[in-house]
UniProtKB/TrEMBL annotation:
Matches recorded under Pfam families: DNase_NucA_NucB (PF14040)
Keywords (A to Z) from UniProt: Signal
Deoxyribonuclease NucA/NucB domain location: 64-161
Protein name: Aldo-ket-red domain-containing protein
Extent of the signal sequence: 1-18
Region of interest (Disordered), ranges: 214-244
Biased composition (Acidic residues): 234-244
Length: 334
């Protein structure tokens, strides 16, 4: 099986240098670093390390979603090569692209997408996983599901993620890599995307870019043509199988060939609350002045926090320094 894995890895590495798919416009989901700082940081690392080359994703709402979401998590390395040991660390494995999308799991489980006319060219064989705060990870998963419903993202629907920047111009201090990425995009010296990526790998939190199925036994990716196609739930997803396939030694020894370097922009959209939306990819401008967007905000309570949704309007678009003035650019220390 090892020889098979190596042979098909080479094929995937060739695919990984393809240009980003030409996905249609879709609704934008703003990531709020004040609510999900470690999850948001993972998205930023995925961008600067070139483990995703578009932030567009394609929702899976098929009858096989639950089964394939589990398989996608395994293919991207969650519980396959990386076990975050949630009970002792308080962290859980976050995957990009999301397991609830055909884009997730390297596009390995896309039969239902192909059945509705989709093409594999829209599913880059790239992705990441990272151990993030488990409470944040769960809350963000719920927020994604609410976004699907609110934005009417159905089966095969395309959506994008963006970043919510507070009115101060600085993302949450716990989103260290996002702050650094934001600073570099806005022309601050002394840092680089390469340095941010290097530090993300070296910070002791398991983080890996993936270009081939990372199941520790029998790597498989049916939609890309390798591995056994007749996978049964008892063989593939049982609790015993999960325990048997844990391998803590592989996470630091992955050879990764990323996709093309991201083409980032400092374009922002100012909202009626004076906060900003940053959609960093130049080819995914999905907002315009006058558009409305729903922002999820956590309101602190006595015992628990309550998430509320606020509708905002885009009132300005352009570079941050043009909107605020070059003398008013924020200083966001990292």
């Amino acid at each position: 099986m090892l020889a098979l894995r190596v042979a098909f890895s080479a094929a995937l590495l060739t695919l990984a240098i393809a240009q980003p798919p030409n996905l249609p416009p879709g609704p934008a989901m703003p990531l709020n670093s004040d609510q999900y700082p470690t999850v948001t940081d993972h998205h930023c690392l995925a961008i600067v390390c070139s483990y995703i080359n578009t932030n567009g994703m394609i929702r899976d709402q098929s009858a096989n979603l639950d089964m394939n979401a589990n398989r996608r998590r395994r293919a991207i390395g969650c519980d396959g090569i990386t076990n975050c040991r949630t009970s002792t660390t308080g962290r859980s494995c976050d995957e990009i692209f999301y397991a609830s999308t055909y884009s997730g799991g390297l596009g390995c489980y896309a039969a239902d997408y192909l059945a509705i006319g989709g093409t594999m060219a829209n599913l880059p064989p790239l992705g990441t996983h990272r151990c993030v705060d488990a409470v944040e990870n769960s809350a963000h998963g719920g927020a994604v599901n609410r976004f699907y419903q609110r934005a009417n993202v159905g089966n095969g629907g395309v959506f994008y993620f963006t970043f919510l920047i507070p009115a101060s111009g600085c993302m949450n201090a716990r989103s260290t890599y996002c702050r650094r990425m934001w600073n570099v995009a806005n022309g601050y010296g002394g840092d680089s995307f390469a340095s941010i990526c290097h530090d993300g790998h070296a910070d002791g939190t398991q983080f890996a870019g993936i270009v081939t199925s990372q199941r520790t036994r029998h790597p498989r990716c049916p939609s890309r043509g390798y591995g056994p196609a007749n996978i049964t739930s008892s063989d593939d997803e049982s609790a015993d199988s999960l325990e048997e396939e844990e391998d803590y030694g592989l996470a630091g020894n992955i050879t990764v060939t990323p996709g093309p370097a991201p083409s980032l922009t400092d374009q922002v959209y100012q909202l009626s609350s004076r906060r900003f939306i940053w959609s960093p990819f130049k080819n995914n401008g999905t907002l315009a002045v006058g558009d409305t967007i729903i922002v999820q905000i956590m309101v602190p309570g006595n015992d628990t926090n309550t998430e509320v949704e606020e509708e905002e309007t885009v009132i300005a678009a352009g570079r941050l320094q043009d909107i605020l003035g070059s003398d008013s650019l924020p200083d966001c220390p990292t």
